Amino acid sequence: MCCLKRPAFCQEPWPRAALSLCRGSGDAALPSSQPLHFCLGPTPKCHFKQQPPSSLLKMGNSYAGQLKTTRFEEVLHNSIEASLRSNSLVPRPVFSQLYLEAEQQLSALEGGSRADNEDEEEEGEGALEPTCPPNPYQMHPPPEGCCTTDGFCQAGKDLRLVSISSEPIDVPAGFLLVGAKSPSLPDHLLVCAVDRRFLPDDNGHNALLGFSGNCVGCGKKGFCYFTEFSNHINLKLTTQPKKQKHLKYYLVRNAQGALTKGPLICWKGSEFRSRQTAASTGSSSLFPPAESSGPLATFSGEPIPGTTPSIPMGAQQAGPASEHPSLTAAIGPAVLNGKDSPKHQQLVKNDPSAVPRPSALGILSNSGPPKKRHKGWSPESPSTTDGGYSQGGGNRAKYESAGMSCMPQVGLVGPAPVTFPVVASGEPVSVPDNLLKICKAKPVIFKGHGNFPYLCGNLNDVVVSPLLYTCYQNSQSISRAYEQYGASTIQPISEEMQLLLTVYYLVQLAADQVPLMEDLEQIFLRSWRESHLTEIRQYQQPQPCPPAPSAVAPVTSAQLPWLAGLAASSCNDSVHIIECTYSLAEGLSEMFRLLVEGKLAKTNYVVIVRACRSPAIDSCVAVTGKYQARILSESLLTPAEYQKEVNYELVTGKVDSLGAFFSTLCPEGDIDILLDKFHQENQGHIPSSLTASSVTKSASLDVGGAPACTSYNLEPHHIRPFQLAVAQKLLSHVCSIADSSTQNLDLGSFEKVDFLICIPPSEVTYQQTLFHVWHSGVLLELGLEKEHMTKQRVEQYVLKLDAEAQTKFKSFLQNSFQNPHTLFVLIHDHAHWDLVSSAVHNLYSQSDPAVGLVDRLLNCREVKEAPNIVTLHVTSFPYALQTQHTLISPYNEIHWPASYSHGVDLYPENKKYFGLSEFIESTLSGHSLPLLRYDSSFEAMVTALGKRFPRLHSAVIRTFVLVQHYAAAMMAVSGLSQMKDYTSVETLEITQNLINSPKQCPCGHGLMVLLRVPCSPLAAVAYERLAHVRARLALEEHFEIILGNPSSGITIGKHFVKQLKMWQKIEDAEWRPQTYLELEGLPCILIFSGMDPHGESLPRSLRYCDLRLINSSCLVRTALEQELGLAAYFVSNEVPLEKGARNEPLESDAEKLSSTDNEDEELVTEGSTSEKRSPVKRERSRSHDSASSSLSSKASSSAPCGESLAQPAAPSQGERARSPQPCGPSEEARAPGDRQRPHASRGPPPVISRRSPGPTPQPDSGLRTGQRSVQASVTVSSSQLSSSGSSSSSMAPAAGTLVLQASQCSMSKACRQPPIVFLPKLVYDMVTATDSSGLPKAASLLPSHSVMWASSFRPLLSKTMTSTEQSLYYRQWTVPRPSHMDYGNRAEGRVDSFHPRRLLLSGPPQIGKTGAYLQFLSILSRMLIRLTEVDVYDEEEININLREESDWHYLQLSDPWPDLELFKKLPFDYIIHDPKYEDASLICSHLQSIKSEDRGMSRKPEELYVRRQTARMRLSKYAAYNTYHHCEQCHQYMGFHPRYQLYESTLHAFAFSYSMLGEEIQLHFIIPKSKEHHFVFSQPGGQLESMRLPLVTDKSHEYIKSPTFTPTTGRHEHGLFNLYHAMDGASHLHVLVVKEYEMAIYKKYWPNHIMLVLPSIFNSAGVGAAHFLIKELSYHNLELERNRQEELGIKPQDIWPFIVISDDSCVMWNVVDVDCGGERSKELSWSERNVSLKHIMQHIEASPNITHYALIGMRKWSSKTGSSEVREPFSRCHVHDFLILNVDLTQNVQYNQNRFMCDDVDFNLRVHSAGLLLCRFNRFSVMKKQIAVGGHRSFHITSKVSDNAAAVVPAQYICAPDSKHTFLAAPAQLLLEKFFQHHSHRFFPLSLKNHSHPVLSVDCYLNLGSQISVCYVSSRPHSLNISCSDFMFSGLLLYLCDSFVGASFLKKFHFLKGATLCVICQDRNSLRQTVVRLELEDEWQFRLRDEFQTANAKEDRPLFFLTGRHI
After folding, report:
1. Coil, strand, or helix at residue 1846?
2. Nearest to 1771 by CA among 1479, 1482, 1472
């Protein structure tokens, strides 16, 4: 079943093996003898019952269960042969094959999902399971010396039909001459004589098994085996030789006696296979040509479900070439009609392997008569087979999918619902000779149900298509979709019902409508759903759409013809029903007879049905309406065929008849004669009507000071808010890829960004992109280029995807490989343009190297695997990249945001984008003239000529008519007024405005008319003709005609270059415009050719977008939207579009309107008077087509249309109004200023990103140009235009207003109105029609040519869908065709099938996507730099002026280490200098007298973090990193090494007792396996005993001796715990100290770090608790290590006693190099550099006498550090942030475990008062990173009861005991510290700003706020305290004082009168005891109300305060 049509019900993906068979050219071809047979996975029994051989199913006369004895031996034989040849298959039981069940025939086969077992059986081929590879056939080597040339027998005689057709051949009696096909000579038949008994009869039966044949070349007789015979005639097969496969045609003699190819030999069944593959266009050398597996087996079988989608009925891939369907007509005159068909050469050219084969498909096609439901291919004409498919298919195949095209066929054909042998009743139907001449159009015959007879005769004049058949098939598979949900078997819609619905559908089509398969599919679907509902609900429902009788009772085949006739009776004969008795052949003959007799002149559709003889019906539908048949047959051409056809007509001169016809129309004779006459008369002077303007114009040009035109203004280049928003969305998507746990993108490892933009091969788009890149400044910003870059440099970053692209791309890849630390962004702009798979290229590489180029480059393995390449696809039409097989994750799609959300303007801009939906809206609104219009008189003329010249392609006719109209309009405007009748009103309007617009502007600015001619040869014809007419009319200087071809640049005349340079103030003599944007203001006709636009942006002076020539027969959404996207525009927001110019009075009196129209016309158009056309006559052309209806004639009086015939003097104001200005420069749009460039610079104007929509994806998409389908986002519903009169007249201003403004430049309104777009009527109807939901019809078309619908059982798109929802819709309901580059990406929907570094940006055409992605590159680069930078605190030390000036300084300036003796003499500096304590209380020592103004005001609590100053620093190679850093070197350190499992860790408890807590402390270590060597265990895996410590005497440079402890909370992601680079790779022990509840998350992020987990009681504790436990643990461990190592003979004092306690935000470390310049020198030069922490630690650890220091630290870095701070190398002062602590010396000094803040200051004071040394190394500094999360900020103080998250102010942190105060959820200690920090003046009023009278704080330092000073004293005996005898204290603070504080101790201090006391205790009881014990009541007075507590509930153990006043 080669047509891999994946049935709707089979949801599992295909088995891989099966798919590999159809994957691409790389797979070996399957042997031809083995049909490509796919089982759908392990086939569930419910889907396919055992299936009888189709050959037996002769429906007419067979009965269920009857044994067909006649074929018993054959089946038996084949079954045995199959089992012998298959290596894995268990053959099916023979008898089960021979018994039939009637229903099985239907159920098993319907829906295109049958397993064609019978095929294999009957040919004896093993039904290979998908998994078993085909067995290659081993050929016997030929005997020595014999001839092995293809086409000759081994005796050397020529057997080719072409060579011996006229030679006499001796044929023995009973033998027939037949043609054999050789795989190596696909284009020849080899003549053989075969005994007729071994050949089948007409029904495909009764051939004897075996073979008997003779060689006609050498005469050798008696070959009894086909194998032997095939060797003799050199068939050279790669598969088992079988007569059924290789004997193809009977050979017959024609009238001249020459031997020619006759009918196909009707081998039963085989025909199918062939057909399936038929599609392949030619068997390239990779594949055997044989029909069975067919060349393109690889591609041939995409699921067809949706094949048809949107082509007008027939169009879609069916492929049939509409013309010459059969190239080799077998029976008729045996000529190749190649002569007549460009397609012939075309095929040959495209497919080298097919060289002379006229129709690649054709010949491949028919291996035999069709099985019954397969609607036969005619035996005689291979190509008729599917009618015109012959060539169509061929080529389409090539393109579409490289063989894809086939699809259709396949689809159509392949899956017959039931296969019956064909009953060829009677003769083939002969197509009458002069059919085309008589009918004026080729009838298109759609095969329907059952058999289709063979056609012979004049096959060129009919087109046969299988699309309808496929549609029927698909809708029969609908019910299967339901079966998988377990519903009872639901009957599919019956064939009779399908046919009847088809008739209903055809009857209701209007005369100018063309049937669409998609409409029909939806009708079937709705009808089936409704009838199904009745089953379920058991009641009848009226059926709204189509009136399906099935709701009542099933239609029987006997009723069918009658009901169909009844339905057709109401349609005035547009649908004719022919009923036949025996076979469709009679009906077809009857139809041809009626056609020839002219009796079907009014009939558009003929439905032929044979329904009486048997339960199955046969049917077909012929389209005979001239209009419909022409459109449908042309829609079956691929783009390439379309171009070839047109070319052929031009080259062969077929079009001359058209020219001759035109010349007869003009009353004065030939137009050219008229032109010559005009030219001679006017030679030497310009036509009078134009004089005035040209004079003024030339004057304005030649005078040096050219008059200025204010409308041509420049706008500064800027990025619009939308573009910025999109760039940021892109960035956030890239970041989310990096943040995901998949490690697919490591942003931290990149230092810079580089990029390459790939664009389609259009010179203009290339220049435009270069220009955007140049002017966006992105290259400078990314640091890729220096200030003065050249054009050549910029070109390196833009790649045109043409033949030379590969080398440039290779260097890009090489570059990315060589620079792993650069992130390369590969931007694929216009990404929908070439989606052809590279497999197709492999097949056709000879023909076109560009085929599949995008796939070969962007999807190559190097790009996919490079970790530093991110691919960004950018397109306006993303649909083809949104299929079931897409590589882009739905999460990586970025859609352009809507400008409004819930009525709020999200990104206010001064310009409004005017795109497809707005154009459609303009056709609905009554306020203004519609901007979308069609031209009815043009359409009428085209239709008339189409009938007159039926052999010419309509594109040729349309082009010639339109050019003729333009020529006549130019002549009319130039004074030949009689020509007005030979053009249409619309064309006249355009031409008039074009010619007159420059006269209204002092500088001569004019408007642009875009004339879209997709076919390049026609564009060239149009250009030559218009240029000729312009020259004859002496208009060369008035407007330019430009031929825009994608492959070449822009050429314009010198005169116009001069004008542009003047307007744009360009001085460069060499300058030439290179983009269309630079043609701003130039009056011109731009003939824009190329099958697809490639993203070219147009200037805002574009006024008319004439799309009347787009190829309207191919309706595909991408193609249609792409063409309409050319007109997309940015309109200034200031002027509401609908209202028209403000000063024009509205007037809707139609009479008046038309009269002014006439006057004007007369006045203006002709200089001389012309015959006035009466309004009535004019009205004719308008109906509501030209959208401008009554205005269509456009008098200058009417507003927007004013230009139409405006007098030379009056620019029609309206028109002017129309030229909107697209978008800000930055846009991809024609923005005014856009166009300008800095003077003298070259290159395109500064437009930044206007990208037009791109071409459709495949090359083959060429054809589709015509279809421009509706924009995705369009949701505007639309209806036909309102009557023309009303819509248009409302804007007509009074005639007078225009004249007043005569001198207005056409550019002035450019910013206010978008261009006017003219469409073909067919497209106009498609775009403006809406479906039932209000969605424009065009949006529901097939989204792109390179995809298919996955099922016809799909919901409709809905009007309300967002872009994201549309994407999900297409991802679910479309599949790529085999030619699509995503086709091989089969893991449907599985996440791993998406490429992780691929993004898709989609947005409407011309909206500014280029600007957005260039902006994205800039911000991505800034972010990467930002990632390599950190914000570090950069604050000056505080309180420097308070530094004690003692006699002692450490003056040994060059000492690397402190000298212990000198250092001991230094006084301790109590003042805190760390800037983070800027608002902390000053600590007084006896030397200061501080003035109150020295201390700043305290800050608000919240501002502290916000206002601290930071500096941005680039990370050095010695930085500490957070979890986002992943580089190769530290993967292992981090535990993320790909080779390892996540590091295993073990949990170890470690307990020690601590007397002060009075209990045992239990800590837990989590130790990764890799770190266990740092610890000692009782035995491996046993109890943890201690952490190893080194010796003081160790001198190794390999490791750091001190273990580092980092307490952390809330910073599992952001804490800087990766010290690998900081330690320069040295071994070190690093322990993270975490709270119990955070253990798991830290463990997840840092799997390879040792964790110390604090007991759960510390979960809410502050940093003091962590410091306390670290120190206690370390001391305990020191003791354990001393004991352990003592046993090894090591002295206790030799064990290293230091640990490092580091903050989690220390990021880098610096050293200051000082050049002292002599000991006493005042001059000090110094420099600071970044060094590793290893360097600093090893330096400090090497200090002599280090064990005598208790605490060592370093400066905090600041950029403002002065030489005074680094002059002295060491200070004795406070140390913070990064401490090296001697746990041995500080054994008796503890951190306060309750503290949250300032615990380091408190500890420093305790250490100093204990007489120990604190040393700060001033020449080392630590940088601290600003981290906005975690740390002490993770404590939030909130109310305990209410859910209100409002912050509680510090004043509420304490309350009176027993009060009703709200309790807070926070530790009591934190409330206490916070309260004191902000409100301590409540307790110490006298102390406020009274620094000479500090508060005495005993044994602790609490921060009382910056305005209160404290004096710290220790109560410990022998402690060092300052002398307090001089101080009078203003307060006393006793905080949890212990027994060392006694009454006598306090008596030593003196207090001011009124000083206040604050005693703080754990509970009220101890408060009272303390007061008594310290005899406080002697000196202090207490009141009851002076007792307070922290605002905690009892269970939270509040702290209690008592305050008193000194007596």
Report:
1. coil
2. 1472
Q: What's the first-to-final CA gap in the chain, in angstroms?
A: 108
1307 falls in which pLDDT band (50, 70, 90)?
Answer: confident
Q: What is the pTM of this model?
A: 0.63
Q: Which two tokens stand for residue 708?
A: 């200025």
The helix/strand/coil state of 631 is helix
Beta carbons within 8 Å of 1280's beta carbon, 6+ residues apart: 1184, 1325, 1328, 1329
The residue type at 835: L
1698-1702/1751-1756 β-pairing: unpaired
Q: Are 1893 and 1887 in contact (CB under 8 A)?
A: yes
Cβ proximity of 1537 and 1505 under 8 Å: no
Q: How far is CA 1655 from CA 1374, 1562, 1565, 1633, 1660, in A?
A: 58, 7, 11, 11, 11
- pLDDT of 127-172, one tens digit each? 333 334 444 465 677 778 788 888 889 888 998 888 888 888 888 8
Q: What is the pLDDT of residue 1287?
A: 34
Exposed / middle / buried, residue 1692 (Cβ in 10 Å: 0-12, 13-18, 19+)? middle
pLDDT of residue 1544: 80
Amino acid type, 1726: W
- Give the pair of three-digit tokens for residue 1494: 């020295």
Contacts of 1845-1850 spanning 24+ positions with Cβ under 8 A:
1850/1501, 1850/1874, 1850/1875, 1850/1877, 1850/1878, 1850/1879
Q: Using alpha carbons, select from 484, 481, 517 the residue that is nearest to residue 501.
A: 517
Alpha-carbon distance 162 to 1576, whole Å?
94
Q: Which residue has the tokens 């460009």?
A: 342
250-259, 679-688, 814-823, 1147-1156: segment of lowest average pLDDT:
1147-1156
Distance CA 968, CA 750 (A): 64
Name the β-bridge partners of 1131.
Answer: 912
Give residue for tokens 């704080």. Answer: 1897
Q: Among 345-359, 1174-1188, 1949-1963, name the most confident range.
A: 1949-1963
Question: What's the residue count for the chain?
Answer: 2007
- Supply φ then ψ for residue 1694, to 5 degrees: -85, -5
Q: Cα 1480 vs. chain centroid, distance in angstroms?
A: 55
Shortest CA distance to 1268 belongs to which of 1043, 1088, 1113, 1401?
Answer: 1113
CA distance 1611 to 1522: 9
How far is Cα 755 from Cα 1413, in angstroms, rounded to an integer? 11
Phi, psi of 1780 (to 5 degrees): -110, 115
Residue 400: pLDDT band by 50, 70, 90 thresholds?
A: very low
Q: How far is CA 1420 from the centre of its chain?
A: 18
Confidence (pLDDT) at 261: 87
List of residues 6+ apart from 256 with CB closer than 8 A: none
DSSP 137-195: PPPPPPPTT----TTB-TTS-B-BHHHHTTS-----TTEEEEEEEETTEEEEEEEEEEE
Query: Residue 1761 — φ and ψ, nearest 5°?
Result: -55, 130
Which among 1146, 1236, 1143, 1247 has a CA at the least distance from the CA of 1198?
A: 1146
Within 8 A by CB and 6+ apart from 1332, the residues are none
How far is residue 1887's CA from residue 1929's CA, in Å, rounded to a whole number? Answer: 8
Quote the longest CA-to-CA distance of the chain: 147
Whole-angstrom distance, CA of residue 1650 vs CA of residue 1673: 15
Closest to 35 (Cα-Cα) out of 68, 2, 60, 71: 2
Report how far residue 149's alpha carbon sits from residue 182's, in angstroms, rounded to the nearest whole number. 12
At residue 564, the pLDDT reads 93
